Amino acid sequence: MTEAPVRAVRKGADLSLEPTELEAEPGAAVTTTVTVHNLGEEVERFTLEVRGPGGSFATAEPADLRMLPDKKQRAVIRFTPARDPGQRAGPHPFQVVARSTVNPDVVQRGSGVVVVGAFARLDADLDPEVTRGRRPGTHCLELVNAGNAPAGVSVELQDDTGELVFDPSSFDETLEPGVREERPFQVAGPVPWFGRTKSFPFTAEVVTTGIPQPVQLQGVRRQVPRFPWWVPTVALALVGVAIALAALLVRDPQVPSVARASQEAAIQKLRNAGFSNILATPEGSDRVDAGKVLRTEPGAGERYPGDEPITLFVSNGPCDGECPLIVPNVVTKPVDEARIHLARVGLRFQELTEAGDAAAGTVLSTDPPANSEAPADKLVTLHVSTGPASASASASASASAASASASESSASAGATGATASSPAGGPGGGTPPGGTRPAMPDVVGQPSDRAVRVLERAGLATRTAVRHTSAAPAGAVLRTNPAAGAAVTSGDEVTLTVAEPLDFYDLAERATWQVDSASVDFPARTAAGPRKEAAADLEDGTRGRVLVLRPSTPRGSVSGDFPITDGIVAGDHLLGEVGFLQGAAGGSVEFAVTVNGHEVYSLTKEADGVLQPIDVDLTGAQGATTVRISVVGPDHPAVWKDLRIETQGK
Prior knowledge:
- 11% of the residues lie in helices and 42% in strands.
- The chain is mainly β.
- Among the domains are: 13-116, Immunoglobulins (Immunoglobulin-like); 120-229, Immunoglobulin-like, CATH 2.60.40.10; 437-500, Trypsin Inhibitor V, Chain A; 502-647, Jelly Rolls (Sandwich), CATH 2.60.120.1060.
- The model is unreliable at 391-436 (pLDDT under 50).
- Residues 413-445 are annotated as: Disordered.
């Protein structure tokens, strides 16, 4: 009996991609859809893999497909190029491979290309910012291409007076992504035979392709004359040659290393080394603890005259984003020293003269005020004294002031006749003789610990109130009660209102996260769960900084508990917007906010192309130390944009 032939089982598959050509901006995501068709007679299981240059930043969702005979399944290939120099701009080919785990010889492939957009960023630094001497000084311009495409860089060196000579005066570079280049150049000023050391500010303007605004770096050349200014006078009475030789043999003291020391210890060490003219100024840093020294200008190891100004840069802690420039406290300083300190910080400035009680050439005030933030593109105004008014005018003004003060005293025992120039009485000092009372110091904009020290030295007690805001650095004094300039008495209590930013985007790593009641890391290691994106494409067509919460199941949940260190204060509002990433569709998601176990906000929303604003008054939750945000719904990427707590009202 002849056996019937065994019929071969049909097997096979087909794969298609739509679209095959994509464009993606660094930091954003784009997707293509892969469709796999089971052409065989058996139940199949296919695994998806993305190969090629584009595969390095691609994920398949899901990566495993199961299907019956003659059925189709779809998956999404998501490309998320990083905003990093290592992610080069341009085309990145990719290949999607679908391989059967049932029939290993069944393999299908589909090819495409994703074009990564270019972004431009250049980091530039001038080191050192100040040189001093008789011979030309050497500076070094450090350039880093932090973008993802080659950048053409043009540098031009110039000074306002045209008295400096630069070698070279300009140069051009082409930097590949991630490349760091150092270009030294020399600066020389006119060298007089006699006189004082003269400062010549100059600018290094850096123009980069793709960046519309040029970078301007400020430097200072301090040109020393051949002989000190006093040599001609001394030479008339003494032996000029001996004096000149002695002056040349005297060596300036050497600047000691004070990095990472406390401000007080650093100042003492500089004084012990022979330096008497020291100015401390704050600067943001995420590498050095607040209150510790970052560096000095001139730098450690340099020889420098002991009576010339030393700038001591002290960390005031990390910044939110790029650290702002802080105006140094140059009030009461000679204007030439003020120029040096401002140039070392990196600020441009202008000068206005006015009559004042201080000696001519003394800085009376600055705008913006000392220890406040100054935008890099804003000029700092130095108000410089032209000297006291005439004696008769001064006497007349004093007599009028005394008469007014006497009239006020007789009219009301509680009158406020303060004079801003009166010294504080100190602890137990009471009201100074003459009927006037000391004025409240201006500490607005200063770190709270420094403000407390200033007020305690003035004999005043302090208490602190918190205001949640992102408009000032953490710990900065926003206002005082009494206000600056008001008359105070030793022992009075001053209320300091201090800034405390509460930005949920920045606090995300400190929050406790759960997906369907299970604890997870932040950011999540899978497509589902919590993460954050700095420039996400949103459903309303805009881009923004968002927290993304994506459930893993059709009725899944994602939640995060955020700690509020100082607790909710009166007037606090929860502000922001909720919605979805671009491309989300179908199904509703429930957004909710819970404070210490009580729900204060709830919204059910679909992807409708509109972000929904949030403004929740949290005054009723005063003192609460935990805020929970959550989403419940299908596996759509729900977002919380610019979520923050701010104190409103006075």
